[in-house]
């Protein structure tokens, strides 16, 4: 075994002292490379940043520009500049899409006259063309769900099963709030599910797509576009057009229950008075 002589110890110390500057140089070199990389990244960002900011300025279509003019005079007070929303007044419109605007504005729910539990349907303040302009402006402003092109009601001649499938889907997904006959129903805290007897196909599809107020959103992963159309087909061809079997005084399409009850009560009352009249005569 080689002995650890004083000369060897001095040689090891001298070697460590000579290695120290080498490590310092490596650290300095790493720091220089890091600074150079940051400077390069900053230069690239500076070169391309003006183009990126220029792209943020959205070039609106002619229809959207008309919608912006309407928005600036009727909606900006509650929803803010560029649809960013105003705290305590109205939510942001970024990402709600044209479908939400066509439902809310087309049914007169927006603009709201006052803050309350639920925006009720009323005569719309904008015609169809103006509603389309507002919807296009919001769509180009922040994107979001859009109504599909083409008919929203299935042709039962070419697709005879659409009505039956739509009825099944309606009973599973809609009756808990809107009732079996589509007459609507009360919810909690002063809210309610509206009736469906005067709803258009576009309004029905937009409501399923956007989930206004208390209604859940039925995205394409919950209900496919074809299933949405089948539900609309059932509502429009069955609930809206077919005669109510309950007659004039109905209980939400439960059948002739009200007529039977009225006949029973009136008949019993007539029998009682007839019995009393006969007893009085005798």
From TrEMBL:
Top-level EC class as recorded in UniProt: translocase
GO cellular component, one term: plasma membrane
Membrane topology per record: Multi-pass membrane protein
Single Gene Ontology MF annotation: iron ion binding
SUPFAM superfamilies in alphabetical order: Cytochrome c
Chain sites annotated for binding heme c 1: 75, 78-79
Signal peptide interval: none
Residues covered by the Cytochrome c domain: 62-142, 161-239
PTM remark: Binds 2 heme c groups covalently per subunit.
Reaction(s) this enzyme catalyzes, per UniProt: a quinol + 2 Fe(III)-[cytochrome c](out) = a quinone + 2 Fe(II)-[cytochrome c](out) + 2 H(+)(out)
The keyword Nucleotide-binding is annotated on this UniProt entry: no
Gene3D superfamilies given in the database record: Cytochrome c-like domain (1.10.760.10)
Subunit description: The cytochrome bc1 complex is composed of a cytochrome b (QcrB), the Rieske iron-sulfur protein (QcrA) and a diheme cytochrome c (QcrC) subunit.
Name listed for the protein in its UniProt record: Cytochrome bc1 complex cytochrome c subunit
Organism from which the protein derives: Actinoplanes italicus
């Amino acid at each position: 075994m080689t002995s650890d002589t004083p000369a060897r110890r001095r040689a090891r110390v001298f070697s460590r002292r000579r290695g120290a500057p080498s490590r310092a140089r490596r650290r300095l070199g790493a720091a220089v490379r890091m600074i150079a990389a940051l400077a390069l990244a900053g230069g690239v960002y500076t070169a391309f940043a003006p183009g990126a900011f220029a792209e943020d300025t959205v070039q609106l279509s002619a229809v959207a520009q008309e919608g912006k003019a309407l928005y600036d005079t009727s909606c900006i007070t509650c929803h803010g500049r560029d649809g960013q929303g105003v705290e305590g007044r109205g939510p942001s419109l970024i990402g709600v899409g044209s479908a939400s605007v066509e439902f809310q504005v087309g049914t007169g729910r927006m603009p709201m006259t006052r803050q309350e539990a639920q925006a009720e349907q009323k005569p719309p303040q904008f015609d169809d063309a103006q509603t389309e302009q507002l919807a296009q402006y919001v769509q180009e402003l922040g994107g979001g769900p859009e109504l599909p092109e083409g008919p929203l009601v299935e042709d039962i001649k070419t697709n005879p099963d659409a009505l039956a499938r739509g009825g099944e889907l309606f009973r599973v997904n809609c009756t808990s709030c809107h009732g079996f006959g589509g007459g609507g129903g009360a919810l909690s805290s002063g809210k309610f599910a509206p009736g469906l007897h005067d709803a258009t196909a576009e309004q029905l599809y937009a409501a399923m797509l956007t989930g206004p107020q208390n209604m859940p959103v039925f995205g394409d992963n919950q209900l496919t576009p074809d299933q949405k159309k089948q539900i609309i087909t059932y509502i429009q061809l069955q609930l809206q057009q077919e005669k109510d079997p309950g007659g004039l005084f109905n209980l939400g399409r439960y059948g002739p229950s009200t007529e039977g009850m009225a006949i029973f009560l009136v008949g019993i009352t007539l029998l009682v008075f007839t019995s009393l009249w006969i007893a009085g005569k005798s």
